[in-house]
């Protein structure tokens, strides 16, 4: 109903429909009021950091508990524990040293060793040889490269959560995205990069979107639960990729690896080898912003969140539940598809059978840690990227088994998913009035 | 008289709110003590403290003269305090006896449930207190009123001497409520003490021995039904004069806005629950649809608003057919819907007030240009609506979750009535609200009528129907059994019709 059409049945003062005579100044004043009051540096900082408090403490707690695992799996420490009463000091130094060493190695593997950077820079300046300098930057580059698919897949799962859907199918969607993009990347020849690259990216999005559409459509039409269907479709995607990579897409007909994508479909890299950092990371940042804008600033996002938070009210308000479910699954699948695409076009250039390596599953945790907030997902994606990248160093330098990192991941997820534990440990009160995304709904929803 | 329970100087503070401020309450043995107050007056806080769910910041509780400190409800239960919650805590697939013994199972030989013994005890209790229940029946097959009796039996089974009843009549029909009052009097006569929480004034006057009124966390006063009146209680609760009867001019009905013809609708379980309903609502009149909960009103309203398919019959809006139209089209034609279950169908609780105020207009000018939401327009409008509809909220950015029930309802009313509409479908618009909010919403409904809206008022509250409607239709088992002019409708007659008596 356009505002001017009034049936004499409007509200109390017979004013025209609100908003028609919008008081801009008042609106701005109100919006101003809504913004955090400039409280002076420290208070403002505390306010700004508040959303990070629980995940931060969860991370800290995970590291502490993880340390226990490092201790009990280390033979040297166990031996020292046997001599605890004769040499308690030795036990403590050994233990603390070990933990510090392990985590230092993890950080070194994830960020880099500052000494290496200085040394590399020195060689670069004195001899003009930049190879050592670049090599010293490799860890942080690796972290960013690893983080990129986590960000995309985290956004995929997070967007699903916001719409009240539990998309466990990021793994399969990611594989389908990878397959689509790798095919477009090598089979379409003779295209300039500004056509070929976007085309390959779009194909990746489409592959994932198609894989998301299927469970979305099934849920909207017949109410089939998306958890079951996305899990099933993961297996279909995994097995399908094994077959197609060993057959039609195999580079020589036998080895299950696809041909390499053409340079015209590859994402630009900025540094020579061994720095694999590529433009995909910036794309991830841009897409995270887009997802945030879509969810919180558009009508379609408003609908999606309404349907996610309360489908009954959304329906009564005239929103189409089924259409929103399908839309959410298509977008979610597409984002997960991009997670696969970004690795293919960024640094792998081809696809092998163990392509996804659990990124799709871990991205559920990425979204959970960020409470499905797109900007938070950038950071939790980075965290996961760093953990993945730092593992090798930890194993090589500190002789801590790789599995410790997975234990760490699991602990972080556990503490984030059960914030009550963290609240109890650190005696934090529950905040009221914070909009939280619905994570999942029960099985019996209509 | 001995004192069963005494609370002295109870104070409870929540962040930003003083929920209980130095409250004193004395409950004598064998009395029915009504605790009256608006939503947010602190009744529930006080009861939760007495029941051990929360600990007071300061103050003491005495049970039979002995000072107690409850860490959790189990300690309160051990002291003989039982609570009847607003929402029943029963397992539908178990029998009455199983539900009652749940958590206190009697066993023989260590492992076998001693059903016989339990049933005997329950039967004895039923007889003693006049609570008729078949202990072998499954809870899911019982009507709400009987389920409530099971809850009461559960409390008695645990040998409670003090019963806290939290708004027990909210879910009952007038007849069932009468039954409950009989049971309450019976219990009191046999020495049980009852705290009866409510905001229905008539009930208080009918059943209570003493009445304590709370407002804004403080005790306003304690009185007896003999010394007070409805009007006085209402003003004690609200803190100002309250107009209990709705003032309205005679209706001036005009053209037919909503026409329902031979409508058939199925329930969720595919049972026919609306069986050939026909009626019209004209512009400028309020049609009250009276009926006991569960006689098809819910499904009828859902069919009219497009939320539930009609299997047969037709619905016309200003002459145009809207049978089985999608909800959005029904809304856009000019239908406002105040849903029965406001938290489920009316609001997205975690969303801020301003988002809830545009929940069905967010996609229109000026709230959206194309795909982009216009935050400024939304906030400015919300600001305006909050002011005009007197929604008490710290700001429009607060999640609706944090508002009281009355203010949540005002958010819905503000949203629905601020659109240009021709038809207002109000389902149980004042259920669970306090006196002040009820007064406010009633005024709005009449105002809409006077502006030429057609109003369909669905309510199980007979008083509400009688005081607001111009015509009254009574629904029973999915059929309209009578349509009466409001002026000629006697309360008793309506009550009988609602209970299924033949219209004469």
Which key phrases capture this entry?
heterodimer; A: 446 residues; mainly alpha; ABC transporter involved in vitamin B12 uptake, BtuC; 17 helices; globular; B: 504 residues; alpha/beta; Rossmann fold; 6-stranded mixed sheet; 24 strands; 28% strand
- Give the name of the CATH superfamily of the largest domain in chain B: P-loop containing nucleotide triphosphate hydrolases
Distance between the termini of chain A: 31 Å
Strands of chain B, total number: 24
Major β-sheet of chain B, in short? 6 strands, mixed
* Rounded mean pLDDT score of chain B: 89
Q: Provide the gyration radius of chain A in Å.
A: 25 Å
Largest interface: A-B, 53 and 63 residues
Task: Supply the helix-strand structural class of chain B.
Answer: alpha/beta
The CATH C-level name of the largest domain in chain B is Alpha Beta
| CATH architecture annotation of the largest domain in chain B | 3-Layer(aba) Sandwich
Give the low-confidence spans of chain A: 1-24, 33-39, 432-446
Instruction: Report the major sheet of chain A.
Output: none
What strand order characterises the main sheet of chain B?
6-9-10-3-11-12
What report would you give on this structure?
The complex is a heterodimer of chains A (446) and B (504). Chain A is mainly α. Chain A has a domain at 145-389: Orthogonal Bundle (ABC transporter involved in vitamin B12 uptake, BtuC), CATH 1.10.3470. Chain A has 17 helices and no strands. In chain A, α6 packs across α15 and α8 packs across α9 (226-246). Chain B is of the alpha/beta class and 504 residues long. Chain B folds into three domains: 3-238, Rossmann fold (3-Layer(aba) Sandwich); 243-334 and 420-504, P-loop containing nucleotide triphosphate hydrolases (Rossmann fold, 3-Layer(aba) Sandwich), CATH 3.40.50.300; 348-419, no CATH class. In chain B, the strands form six sheets. Chain B has a six-stranded mixed β-sheet, with helices on both faces. Chain B has a six-stranded mixed β-sheet with strand order 18-21-22-15-23-24, with helices on both faces. A four-stranded antiparallel β-sheet of chain B has the order 2-1-4-5, covered by helices on one side. Chain B is globular and about 70 Å long. The mean pLDDT of chain B is 89. The chains are: A mainly alpha (446), B alpha/beta (504). At the A-B interface, α1, α11 and α12 of A face α10, α11, β20 and α13 of B.
């Amino acid at each position: 109903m356009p505002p001017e059409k009034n049936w004499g049945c409007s509200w109390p003062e017979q004013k025209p429909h609100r908003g028609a005579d919008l008081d801009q100044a008042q609106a701005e004043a109100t919006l101003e009021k809504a913004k955090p009051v400039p409280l002076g540096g420290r208070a403002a900082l505390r306010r700004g950091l508040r959303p990070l408090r629980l995940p931060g403490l969860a991370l800290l707690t995970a590291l502490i508990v993880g340390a226990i695992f490092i201790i009990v799996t280390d033979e040297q420490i166990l031996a020292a524990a046997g001599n605890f009463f004769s040499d308690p000091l030795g036990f403590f130094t050994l233990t603390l040293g070990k933990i510090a060493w392990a985590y230092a190695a993890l950080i070194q593997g994830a960020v880099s060793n500052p000494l290496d950077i200085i040394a590399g820079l020195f060689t670069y300046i004195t001899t003009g040889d930049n190879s050592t300098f670049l090599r010293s930057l490799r860890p942080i580059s690796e972290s960013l490269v690893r983080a990129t698919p986590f960000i995309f897949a985290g956004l995929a799962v997070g967007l699903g959560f916001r719409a009240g859907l539990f998309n466990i199918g990021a793994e399969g969607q990611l594989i389908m995205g990878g397959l689509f993009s790798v095919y477009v990347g090598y089979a379409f020849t003779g295209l300039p990069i500004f056509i070929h690259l976007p085309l390959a990216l779009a194909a990746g999005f489409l592959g994932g979107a198609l894989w998301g559409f299927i469970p979305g459509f099934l849920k909207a039409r017949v109410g089939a639960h998306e958890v079951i269907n996305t899990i099933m479709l993961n297996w279909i995607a995994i097995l399908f990729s094994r077959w197609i990579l060993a057959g039609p897409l195999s580079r020589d007909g036998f080895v299950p690896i696809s041909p390499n994508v053409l340079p015209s479909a590859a994402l630009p890299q900025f540094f020579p080898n061994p720095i694999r950092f590529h433009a995909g990371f910036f794309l991830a940042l841009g897409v995270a912003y887009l997802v945030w804008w879509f969810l919180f600033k558009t009508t379609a996002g408003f609908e999606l969140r309404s349907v996610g938070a309360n489908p009954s009210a959304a329906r009564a308000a005239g929103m189409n539940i089924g259409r929103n479910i399908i839309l959410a699954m298509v977008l979610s699948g597409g984002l997960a598809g991009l997670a696969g695409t970004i690795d293919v076009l960024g640094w792998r250039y081809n696809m092998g059978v163990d392509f996804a390596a659990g990124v799709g599953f871990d991205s559920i945790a990425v979204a959970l840690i960020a409470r499905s907030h797109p900007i938070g997902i950038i950071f939790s994606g980075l965290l996961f990227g760093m953990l993945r990248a730092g593992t090798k160093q930890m194993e090589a330098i500190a002789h801590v088994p790789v599995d410790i990192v997975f234990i760490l991941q699991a602990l972080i997820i556990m503490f984030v998913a059960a914030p009550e534990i963290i609240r109890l440990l650190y005696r934090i009160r529950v905040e009221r009035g914070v909009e939280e995304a619905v994570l999942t709904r029960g099985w019996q929803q209509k | 008289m001995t004192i069963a329970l005494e609370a002295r100087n109870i104070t409870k503070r929540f962040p930003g709110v003083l929920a209980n401020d130095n409250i004193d309450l004395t409950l004598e043995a064998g009395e029915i003590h009504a605790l009256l107050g608006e939503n947010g007056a602190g009744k529930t806080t006080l009861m939760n403290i007495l029941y051990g769910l929360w600990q007071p910041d300061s103050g003491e509780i005495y049970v039979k003269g002995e000072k107690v400190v409850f860490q959790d409800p189990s300690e309160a239960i051990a002291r003989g305090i039982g609570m009847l919650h607003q929402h029943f805590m029963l397992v539908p697939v178990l029998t009455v006896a199983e539900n009652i013994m749940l958590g206190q199972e009697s066993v023989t030989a260590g492992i076998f449930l001693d059903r016989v013994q339990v049933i005997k005890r329950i039967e004895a209790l039923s007889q003693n207190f006049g609570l008729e229940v078949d202990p072998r029946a499954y809870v899911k097959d019982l009507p709400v009123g009987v389920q409530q009796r099971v809850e009461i039996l559960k409390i008695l089974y645990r040998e409670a001497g003090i019963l806290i009843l939290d708004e027990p009549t909210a879910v009952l029909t007038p007849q069932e409520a009468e039954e409950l009052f009989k049971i309450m009097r019976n219990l009191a006569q046999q020495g049980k003490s009852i705290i009866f929480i409510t905001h229905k004034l008539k009930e208080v006057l009918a059943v209570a021995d003493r009445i304590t009124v709370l407002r804004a966390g403080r005790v306003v006063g304690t009185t007896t039904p003999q010394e007070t009146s409805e009007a006085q209680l209402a003003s004690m609760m609200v803190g100002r004069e309250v107009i209990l009867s709705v003032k309205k001019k005679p209706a001036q009905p005009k053209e037919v806005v909503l026409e329902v013809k031979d409508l058939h609708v199925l329930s969720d379980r595919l049972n026919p629950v609306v069986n050939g309903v026909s009626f019209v609502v004209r512009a400028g009149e309020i049609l009250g649809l009276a009926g006991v909960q569960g006689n098809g009103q819910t499904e009828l309203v859902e069919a009219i608003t497009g939320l539930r398919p009609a299997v047969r019959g037709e619905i016309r809006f200003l002459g145009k057919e809207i049978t089985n139209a999608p909800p959005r089209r029904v809304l856009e034609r000019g239908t406002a819907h105040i849903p029965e279950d406001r938290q489920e169908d009316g609001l997205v609780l975690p969303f801020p007030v301003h988002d809830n105020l545009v929940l069905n207009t967010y996609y229109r000018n000026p709230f959206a240009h194309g795909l982009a939401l216009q935050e400024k327009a939304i906030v400015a409008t919300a600001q305006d609506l909050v002011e005009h509809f007197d929604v008490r909220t710290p700001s429009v950015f607060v999640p609706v979750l944090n508002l009281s029930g009355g203010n949540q309802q005002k958010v819905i009313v503000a949203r629905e009535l601020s659109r240009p509409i021709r038809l207002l479908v109000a389902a149980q618009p004042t259920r669970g609200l306090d006196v002040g909010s009820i007064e406010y919403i009633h005024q709005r409904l009449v105002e809409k009528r006077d502006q030429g809206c057609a109003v369909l008022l669905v309510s199980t509250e007979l008083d509400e129907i009688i005081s607001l409607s111009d015509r009254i239709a009574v629904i029973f088992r999915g059929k309209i059994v009578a349509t009466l002019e409001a002026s000629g409708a006697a309360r008793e007659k309506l009550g009988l019709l609602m209970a299924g008596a033949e219209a004469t």
